[in-house]
Amino acid sequence: VAYDNHGSVYASRLWWMLKATGHANVRVLDGGLDAWNGPIGTVPRPPTPTATPVQPMPYVGLVLVDELVSNLQSKNNLVIDARMADRFQGQNETLDPVGGHIPDAINYCFRNNLSSKSFKSPEQLYKDFVDLLGSKKASEIIHQCGSGVTACHNLLAMELAGLKGSRLYAGSWSEWCADPSRPVAR
């Protein structure tokens, strides 16, 4: 169970990382530790050695930069940028050397998934994303942000809404803008 007290931003990234490395039973505590009503504690247990067979890493929907470069021409996928609108527009870039966004990306700030400190209902998330995606299927969605953290929030929100199969460009804006040959939109 992953949790934080920051609107599940970091918990969403941990959720994705654990899923990406083959852990199937991963959950996020919606609303963070503040939402937990039960006792918090651990029961010390001595470690028990077990034989753990090496498993090949499953396909996790990780997108590499070359696919995004190709997508500029093919437009097969819709790129959703989870950053705040000002960073997306290149007006307040405080973390990367270049402001702006990947051409043709749309902005859907991760905070749109929240109602106060917890996720909106799955029904509301579904409506929000269907309105946003238009005719695109979940499998045609690539999430990105500044560094691959808040994009996981949008990816998890789509999963909660029943829209499974979207993918993550973990390098996100930081990787994209590091190469001056790549186009930048503002």
Could you explain how this protein is built, in words?
It is a single chain. By secondary structure, the protein is α/β, with parallel strands linked by helices. The chain has a domain at 65-177: 3-Layer(aba) Sandwich (Oxidized Rhodanese, domain 1). 30% of the residues lie in helices and 9% in strands. It is built from 6 helices and 6 strands. It has helices spanning 9-20, 65-74, 85-88, 122-133, 150-160, 172-177, and strands spanning 78-81, 106-107, 114-115, 118-119, 141-144, 167-168. The strands form 2 sheets. The chain has a 4-stranded parallel β-sheet with strand order 2-1-5-6, with helices on one face. It is globular and about 55 Å long. The model has no long low-confidence stretch (mean pLDDT 93).
CATH superfamily of the domain at 65-177: Rhodanese-like domain
Please report which band the strand proportion falls in: under 5%, 5-15%, 15-25%, 25-35%, 35-45% or over 45%: 5-15%
The CATH architecture of the domain at 65-177: 3-Layer(aba) Sandwich
What's the Cα radius of gyration? Answer: 18 Å
Outline the low-pLDDT stretches.
none
Highest-level CATH class of the domain at 65-177: Alpha Beta
Compute the number of helices.
6
CATH topology (level 3) name of the domain at 65-177? Oxidized Rhodanese, domain 1
Largest sheet: 4 strands, parallel
Mean pLDDT: 93
Helix content estimate: 25-40%
User: What is the number of strand segments?
Assistant: 6
Terminal residue distance: 38 Å
